[in-house]
Write a structure and sequence with these properties.
The chain is elongated, with a radius of gyration of 37 Å. The termini are far apart. It is an alpha/beta fold and 303 residues long. Strand 5 and strand 6 form a beta hairpin. Helix 2 packs parallel to helix 6 and helix 5 runs antiparallel to helix 6. Helices cover 47% and strands 15% of the residues. It has a domain of 142 residues: Diaminopimelate Epimerase, Chain A, domain 1, CATH 3.10.310.50. The longest helix is centred in the N-terminal third of the chain and has 36 residues. Keywords: Membrane, Transmembrane, Transmembrane helix. This is TPM domain-containing protein. InterPro entries: TPM_dom. Pfam families: TPM_phosphatase.
């Protein structure tokens, strides 16, 4: 009887132990699942990028924006932020957007590349803030075009569609690439930073042209100095020709007879008095300034 009781106790302990291990594995599995769900594309932790402080979006719209922003961040390797406010604290829309971006430490890389979209219900203004490399993609003309589309939506109080229009515009212009002749113009210093890049097919074409030109030049020189004609002449005739050669030296002087100097006044170009804009296409211009070590551009639109 005692042996049976001891065997029963051992079985009970094993059962409890197995149950405890099974419970631990269930809890661990649930925690790993929650952690995996909290991760974005490529294993990076998801970070909140939509701040609807004015309560303009539905929960479904916020979730849609967050998903789209995560995909954009992964593709562009730049940050994207959407925020709304109805209490700007006495700041302009531009000041509020810049402070929000700096305070949140948003941006990717040393130049904090990214873009922020603000719906300011206090100042009644939409504002787009490109930072760092994003200024190359969102030129003055492009972010104004995005604001045009966003303004059409907010005029009908369709705030979700307004933010969606912003995301679509950024996506569109990123995929279009940096426009030809793009340059950043610092409105505070007047400094111009021109974007220069060479695509692979441009480099390949330049190398091919260089090879053709070099081959043509080398072929011409080789043909000219090969002396095929001279080798066809008879040796005796060549030697006889050289035997009759003579050299005679004589003094020669050059005398300056007259000197004429012509002066011509070249008028200055008065056609373009705009500061920092001469010689560049306005379509590729991004007007920027520096704040807290960040190159910031963009602008706003009242509604």
């Amino acid at each position: 009887m005692m042996k049976t009781k001891g065997l029963f106790l051992r079985i009970s302990r094993v059962t409890v132990l197995l149950f405890t291990v099974l419970l631990f594995l269930i809890v661990l599995s649930g925690g790993m699942k929650a952690f995996a769900e909290s991760q974005g594309p490529g294993g990076a932790l998801k970070e909140k990028r939509v701040y609807d402080e004015a309560g303009l979006f539905s929960q479904e719209e916020i979730e849609t924006f967050e998903t789209q922003i995560q995909a954009m961040r992964k593709e562009m390797n730049m940050d994207v932020v959407i925020t709304t406010t109805d209490q700007a604290g006495g700041k302009s829309a531009g000041q509020y957007a810049e402070d929000f971006y700096i305070r949140g430490a948003y941006g990717v890389g040393k130049d904090y590349s990214g873009v922020l979209f603000l719906i300011d219900m206090d100042n009644r203004e939409l504002y787009i803030l490109p930072v760092g490399k994003m200024n190359r993609f969102l030129t003055d003309k492009r972010w104004n075009s995005i604001l045009d589309s966003a303004y059409d939506e907010i005029s009908n109080q369709n705030y979700g569609a307004c933010a969606g229009s912003f995301l679509d515009g950024v996506n569109k212009y990123y995929k279009a690439g940096i426009p030809g002749g793009q340059y950043n113009y610092d409105k505070e210093t007047g400094k111009i930073s021109v974007y220069r890049s060479i695509r692979w097919y441009e480099a390949a074409l330049a190398a091919l042209i260089g090879l053709i030109a070099a081959a043509t030049a080398c072929g011409g020189v080789t043909s000219r100095y090969s002396m095929k004609k001279e080798r066809g002449w008879a040796k005796n005739s060549l030697m006889a020709y050289r035997a009759n050669c003579q050299f005679r030296y004589s003094d020669q002087f050059d005398h300056l007879v007259n000197k004429n100097v012509t002066y011509m006044i070249i008028p200055r170009n008065q056609g373009n008095t705009g500061r920092g804009g001469g010689g560049f296409s306005s379509g590729g211009r991004s007007t920027t300034h520096t704040s807290s070590g960040r190159t910031m551009g963009g602008g706003g639109r009242k509604f």
